Amino acid sequence: MKQFRSITGVLLVFILSALALVMVYDKGKDQKPLRYADVPQGTIDWINSFGEGLDDILSSFDPIPRPTPWNNDGDIGQDSETGLKTLEDELFIIYFPESLTRKAYLCQQYAHQAIPRLEDIIGKYYYPVDMNGRKVPIYLTPDQKAFDQLMKKMVSIERSFESTAGITIQEISPSGYFLKGIALNGKFSFSSDAYMKDVLWHEMTHYCFFASVDYNQHVNLPKWCYEGIAEYTALVGKKPRFTQEEIDMMRKDCRLADSHFPYVFENYMGGQSIFCYMDDTYSVMGVKSFLKSTYTTGIPAALQSNFTKTLQAFEADWKQYLPHYKR
Description:
Blueprint: H1 2-28, H2 41-48, E1 57-61, E2 85-88, E3 92-96, H3 101-121, E4 136-141, H4 144-155, E5 166-173, E6 176-185, H5 186-189, H6 193-212, H7 223-234, H8 244-253, H9 264-297, H10 299-307, H11 311-321
Parallel strand pairs: 1-5, 3-4, 4-6
Antiparallel strand pairs: 2-3, 5-6
Helix pairs in contact: 3-6, 6-7, 7-9, 9-10
């Protein structure tokens, strides 16, 4: 009898253990696998470096995996105390004060129009199904004061973003890329409807570009790359124009291997001119192929594999080509 009880006890433990494993499996099988399980420290430092100076990106790395689903329940705009209205469809949710109702509907229209362009140039548009159910949150603010107050609520930063027309706020964790929101500063963005579209498309390019990067690699992409491609993508068919003095400055100041160029225009318009030169020389297919490689291998390897050029050789060719963009 004692032996029977012992066998029964062992079987009971075995059955309970098996049931526990099944429950753990059922609970975990719907969770997304970790996309960035082993991010190098150098990449983490780069992610956390955004937001200095005139960056229109605020970025952070969270070492704790983000649980799913990634819906919009936690958005600042969901708080009734903000007094913000919402305009929502299957892809976007726009938060705005009632005074900006017309702008909100226009913003929604422009956001949808950006998708084919982003799919073409960046290589992929990230829909809610790609982001664990999260729709792209877009905040519209009427003036500088409201924009600064929104930034304080969203990222707890007490400073004036007085030179910022739009901003992308993002987080990278082992679970993947998470877009906290895109915000437009009405002080600048609403100067015209055309400019509002340009700013929105610029920030949406940041969203798709940074969502495409493989953060398991050593990543330290320079500012001219992510700001330049945002300008190139947003300003369809437009090329930058420089004075001779500005061309001389870029030839003197700009080193493609540096993390950023000394002056703001060099990173934005100068960065745009790099991609325009790439387009003029290697066609738009060259731009797209270069970007695809950049997401996983970095810039020097992408230049070598796509154009058989070293970083230094490509830099010299671009500087030689700059007079094509002279005013």
